[in-house]
Write a structure and sequence with these properties.
Layout: E1 8-11, E2 20-27, E3 32-35, E4 40-45, E5 55-60, E6 62-64, E7 68-72
Antiparallel strand pairs: 1-2, 1-7, 2-3, 3-6, 4-5
Length: 77
Amino acid sequence: MFVKTGDKVKVIAGKEKGKEGTVLSVNVKKNRVVVKGLNMIKKHQKPSQTNANGGVIEVEGSIHASNVKVISKADKN
């Protein structure tokens, strides 16, 4: 896959077209990426010890890898 975690990408198709962000995670089997701050979805969460109230939270949803273009590669340490 041409996209790696930490790369800066630009969305070239879909509802988030034209926006930029950093790749948080990559799913190679499904050919999808999660970009920080883009494609936000609402997720219902049950109460737990870490989140006592539960409720509706917003998290990043995945975007198909063909809909993103790499702007700059992540630095290798």
